[in-house]
Amino acid sequence: MLDIQNLRVTYGTGRLQVDAVKDVSFQVKKGAAYGLVGESGSGKSTVLRAICGLAPISGGRVLVDGTEVKTPRDQTFYRTVQMVFQDPYASLHPRHTVDRTLAEPLAIHGEKNAEERIAQALREVGLGPSFRFRYPHQLSGGQRQRIAIARALILRPKVLLLDEPTSALDASVQAEVLNLLDELRHKMGLTYILVSHDLAVVAHLCDKLLVMRHGEGVEETTAAALRHGTASNDYTQSLIHASSGYTREVLKPAAA
Amino acid sequence: MTKPLLEVEDLRVRFHLRTGTVDAVRGVSFQLGRERLGIVGESGSGKSQTGRAILGLTPPPGEVAAKKLSFDGIDLLTASKRTLRTLRGGRISMVMQDPKYSLNPVMTIGEQIIEAYQAHAKVSRAEARDKALAMLEAVKMRDPGRVFALYPHEVSGGMGQRAMIAMMLVTDPDLLIADEPTSALDVTVSMEVLRILDELVAERGMGLIFVSHDLKLVSSFCDRVLVMYAGRVVEELEAKHLREAQHPYTRGLMNCLPTLAADVRPLPTLNRDPAWAL
Ligand SMILES: Nc1ncnc2c1ncn2[C@@H]1O[C@H](COP(=O)(O)OP(=O)(O)OP(=O)(O)O)[C@@H](O)[C@H]1O
Ligand SMILES: Nc1ncnc2c1ncn2[C@@H]1O[C@H](COP(=O)(O)OP(=O)(O)OP(=O)(O)O)[C@@H](O)[C@H]1O
Ligand SMILES: [Mg+2]
Ligand SMILES: [Mg+2]
Predict the structure, then answer these.
(1) Which of A230, A237, B75, B147 is the most buried (most CB within 10 A)?
(2) CATH of the domain at A222
(3) Alpha helices, H only, chain A
């Protein structure tokens, strides 16, 4: 469904030039979920943004369903692919109510039953009708993130690019969102790319994942390998190790 | 016993909207010493609004009321605007939940840290610049020099979060309110950042309020935890005993987490009892 070939993204010039993504390749089968994990600043969000045409691609190809995407991306693309941004505040229009945020994609794509679908979209992310006429700044962090998820889901796209979709959610709401994503994938065959720093979340939702560092993929591995703690790459191992919680011990040798 | 650093008694925050009234915080009380206090709780339960109210940063038209709100003997409810301004970003800092939104979009990261530093310390520009670079390095930025010159929209989610932490720590605060400070960080960088906070508490005696929904992290990092639900503190316990929580909300929360050890699906969810919100 998704085929990313030797993707490159470079930002800035001179002293500030950075190769945010260097030569990243991976494929995601229809109906599969693929994880991107790795160091902060390693280019995970940039990969998703590049797929959506929101980052300057300087090399490589992006294929959706076997055909190379058009630049700029057209309506058909956004009908097929939707993205949940890492930063819900920045991706929600500050002067649009929740209602307008959810109604707009429906209107653009000529969808019917807007009323009903908005109510359903809110229900799916665990928000009652009382949130419908709030503005983004009148919501808590997790409520904003849920609106961003609802907006991406409302068109029932075939591919969802999810950038830290549950990182602002408490455990119970996170479980509800993960169950919803799981269910949609099994019922409707949606394809996901999920960026998350929570390895348990990635293992829960994804079959395969790419570990990134400094703009490169350092290891492609499976959820099963994560669960068994069998990673070949040292960096991946350190991620698995650090997931077990904070330890003061590591601090002590330095102090002694 | 020494006096607590922060005393909060019966804190209330309320918003009147056209569509009705939102009681965001409904009578929160706690004391903070030179320790790591975790606040966990449901999305929308009032964690961020509690932090903001302490700093006097409740967004209009929010109304704040409390029986007591005092920091190091200073009554924050009656303190002058000027006193509050000097405290804020100086002795009391807050790392906001939406760092990239809270940073100034038209100023580089470096300039913002310099400005924050110079507002509270009498130092030359060169000194402030060195300090800013050192702070960026301390929060494990890969290329501090580059990040210094970037605008907020040019950094990644986790870099924005660390930039905000650098800016809030540059003034050596006595009280740091950190609202989900590591939610966008990969686990290894997150550990490094926590270690900095840990040292500040252990060595400088900073008081830390650590808002997070990451239960594993809170129970391993904090000393004490408050659990919030619908604007109230429903349970307070020692962090390491989070697994033995009594309140059904807290207990339920622990079960909802996916783990690497077991593949449970669908994940258990909470059946919220309306009685919890009374
Ligand atoms: N608009 C931009 N201008 C300049 N540099 C940019 C821009 N957007 C991203 N970058 C740089 O690209 C690199 C990768 O950023 P990206 O947001 O993809 O990281 P990430 O893996 O998503 O990290 P995080 O986990 O912290 O969100 C960073 O060094 C960042 O500074
Ligand atoms: N400006 C506002 N106007 C009206 N209601 C608001 C406003 N800001 C916050 N609220 C409401 O107050 C309640 C508490 O919000 P708060 O941001 O403190 O939640 P939180 O516990 O930090 O949640 P999260 O974990 O999702 O960030 C929420 O229900 C939210 O919708
Ligand atoms: Mg990112
Ligand atoms: Mg919050």
Answers:
(1) B147
(2) 3.40.50.300
(3) 44-51, 75-80, 88-91, 98-108, 114-124, 141-153, 171-188, 199-205, 223-228, 234-242, 251-255
